[in-house]
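Memo to structure team: turn this sequence into structure tokens by end of day. - J.P.
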Amino acid sequence: NSTKFFLNLCEKNNGKLYSVDIDDYSKLFNDNNWKFINTSDDDFDKVIKEAGNEFDLIFIDSFHNPQHVKKLILFYFQYLKKNGLMIIDDISWVPYCKNNYRDHSHTEVINRETFLEILKLIPNNQDIFKVHFSFEDSGLAKIIKLDNEKLKESTELKDRSYSIKNMLKKILK
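Reply from structure team:
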């Protein structure tokens, strides 16, 4: 569905769409605006060689592993045009929580960890991008590139959830 949606956008805006997947979907569409690259999305040399090195939009709906998604963000961000968008799918764990409508333990954990990896990128990169989150369905993160600087590595967030002060507040409630 996403490929068809993006192809429609390409047709309206004279754009070009590149899809990357390890499964061969090259016969799915016959469209001059579309090129399918049959490889892993972290085969960076092959993807850049075949797709070019400047993009208005990068949509990541990849292998659902937080470290893999982070690696893709860090690498492909440099090829995103200034004011371009990077969209990362599957960042909401809420539908997958126990007894919720998509109850699934593994997806709950992976999506939450992916969300947290994106959050960890924010403190060191606040001048380089803006991030917006949507938690509808499986959720998505929308990153808007503000500057052509290279993304800096993530940093651990200093969470006060388990501070003595916070724990005392909970106990005294």
